[in-house]
């Protein structure tokens, strides 16, 4: 048995902690000096995404006196950390999947990888490899490349190649697949109610493609997959992590877990017990989210010491996890520079126009705004803003419920009506907005979420996300509508 100081260092080396605000707290800096494996950055840490991120990551390494893992979720589209202030510079996965140009996907993610490498980030918790087969899924949606396993697979592989060509490690998520669930593991246990054959023929296909493309990490999700392990979450399941991911799919890199404080873990087995059980099941780097958890710096080494003593965890497994986590602290060599023009050009190609668009007259833009998801947070977005620069008289109305729509028809008068919907299949109050557009000739619907089933005759523009460049492209299409 090693001494207590070695156990403490090894346990901390497998932990990735978050923190609040742009300045790392003293307890975190001390933990880095004591062996903490690294950090996960969120919007509150990076501010406007400028050069201050590099200053922050340099400070974290200085406190540690060595390379450390610096991770964040930069998926592009609706989930961004560098661009929480203004919205992502990149189109998201659903938009790229609909375009279905893997070369373009690779270039977009290469730009993301290069940008992260310049900021000192070593691990991008992307791409999402989930196949969004459930349209009512509350957490994946436009974060997925699509609902077809083969399509998702080719774009996941392209994204992995791009991120890692840019100089940052990629991380496939959320194994064994979050796309068929109807609940969000941020709030509760999500059940993956799929048979083993379905999982192998659909859900596993993108993960296999990403692994074949060389992804350096895979994230396990807080999912209950009864066909694979009837008793425990995938995060703490040896049959899922070892037998399936390691042995069957042949993944030899670092297994990362989703955040411990998500309620699927925190409200069931608890964060500290979740850490120990994930480690014993075969996970390597175990993370928390955006809050401060200074108590874990002592609680986790104590729990690991106890688990070693009672035989639930072996020293060999602990050392193996430590080595695998440390491998993500070393960034790759960027092979491409960041190129914003490439990303903008791809975003313009992603917007889909269905039906002839009318000529707009002083358009009233009704922006339906359901609550933001936990993964994305409160992103700024607007279609009216770029449209106003192109069409005189444009005004915006924000709607958060059906009641907000009652006065829209009267206010619109003879003006053109542009109705922006976001996941109306999940937020039924937006049906009233769709009906309002369908009842007024010359209206347009702009669908900025996972594509809804819209059966009216109103022309539809689909962006599959609210990234600014997607909305700018949609505005340009609307402004040109009705012109020869």
Task: Considering the chains and any ligands shown, give keywords for the structure.
484 residues, alpha/beta, TIM Barrel, Rossmann fold, 2 domains, eight-stranded parallel beta sheet, six-stranded mixed beta sheet, 16 strands
Radius of gyration: 23 Å
Overall pLDDT metric:
92
CATH C-level label of the largest domain: Alpha Beta
Q: What percentage of residues falls in helices of 4 or more residues? A: 25-40%
The class by helix and strand makeup works out as: alpha/beta
Which blocks of ≥5 consecutive residues have pLDDT under 50? none
Q: Count up the helices.
A: 18
Question: What spatial form do the alpha-carbon principal axes imply?
Answer: globular
Strand content is 5-15%
What is the topology?
Blueprint: H1 4-13, E1 15-17, H2 26-33, E2 38-41, H3 43-46, H4 52-64, E3 69-72, H5 93-99, H6 102-118, E4 123-124, H7 149-165, E5 169-175, E6 190-191, H8 196-212, E7 217-220, E8 223-224, H9 238-248, E9 254-257, H10 263-266, H11 271-281, E10 286-287, H12 296-310, H13 315-326, H14 340-350, E11 352-354, E12 364-368, H15 384-388, E13 395-399, H16 408-412, E14 417-421, H17 431-438, E15 444-447, E16 460-462, H18 468-480
Parallel strand pairs: 1-2, 1-10, 2-3, 3-4, 4-5, 5-7, 6-8, 7-9, 12-13, 12-14, 14-15, 15-16
Antiparallel strand pairs: 11-16
């Amino acid at each position: 048995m090693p001494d207590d100081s070695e156990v403490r260092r090894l346990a901390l080396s497998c932990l990735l902690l978050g923190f609040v605000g742009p300045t790392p707290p003293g307890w975190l800096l001390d933990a880095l000096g004591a062996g903490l494996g690294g950090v996960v950055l969120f919007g509150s840490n990076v501010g406007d995404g400028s050069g201050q991120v590099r200053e922050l990551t340099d400070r974290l390494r200085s406190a540690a006196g060595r390379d450390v893992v610096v991770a964040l979720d930069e998926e592009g589209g609706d989930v961004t950390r560098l661009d929480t202030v203004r919205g992502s510079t990149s189109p998201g996965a659903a938009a790229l999947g609909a375009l279905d140009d893997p070369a373009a996907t690779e270039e977009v993610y290469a730009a993301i990888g290069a940008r992260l490498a310049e900021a000192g980030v070593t691990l991008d918790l992307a791409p999402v490899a989930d196949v969004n087969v459930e349209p009512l899924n509350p957490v994946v949606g436009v974060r997925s490349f699509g609902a077809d396993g083969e399509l998702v697979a080719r774009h996941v592989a392209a994204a992995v190649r791009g991120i890692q060509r840019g100089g940052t490690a990629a991380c496939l998520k959320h194994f064994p697949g979050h796309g068929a669930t109807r609940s969000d593991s941020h709030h509760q246990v999500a059940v993956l109610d799929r048979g083993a054959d379905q999982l192998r023929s659909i859900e596993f296909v993108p993960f296999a493609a990403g692994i074949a493309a060389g992804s350096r990490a895979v994230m396990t999700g807080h999912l209950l997959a009864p066909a694979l392990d009837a008793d425990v979450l995938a995060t703490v399941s040896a049959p899922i992590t070892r037998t399936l991911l390691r042995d069957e799919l042949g993944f030899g890199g670092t297994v990362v877990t989703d955040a411990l404080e998500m309620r699927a873990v925190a409200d069931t087995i608890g964060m500290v017990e979740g850490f120990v059980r994930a480690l014993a099941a075969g996970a390597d780097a175990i993370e928390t989210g955006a809050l401060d958890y200074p108590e874990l710096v002592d609680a986790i080494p104590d729990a690991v010491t106890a688990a070693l003593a009672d035989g639930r965890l072996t020293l060999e497994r602990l050392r193996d996890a430590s080595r695998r986590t440390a491998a993500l602290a070393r960034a790759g060599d960027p092979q491409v520079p960041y190129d914003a023009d490439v990303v903008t050009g791809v975003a313009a190609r992603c917007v889909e126009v269905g039906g002839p668009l009318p000529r707009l007259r002083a358009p009233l833009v009704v922006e339906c705004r359901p609550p933001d998801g936990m993964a994305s947070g409160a992103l700024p977005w607007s279609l009216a803003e770029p449209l106003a620069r192109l069409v005189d008289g444009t005004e915006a109305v924000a709607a958060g419920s059906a009641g907000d729509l009652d006065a829209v028809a009267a206010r619109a008068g003879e003006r053109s009506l542009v109705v922006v919907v976001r996941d109306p299949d999940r937020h039924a109050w937006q049906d009233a907005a769709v009906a309002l557009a369908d009842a007024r000739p010359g209206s347009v619907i702009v669908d900025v979420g996972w594509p809804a089933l819209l059966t009216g005759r109103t022309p539809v523009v689909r962006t599959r996300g609210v990234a600014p460049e997607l909305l700018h492209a949609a505005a340009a299409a609307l402004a040109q509508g009705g012109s020869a």
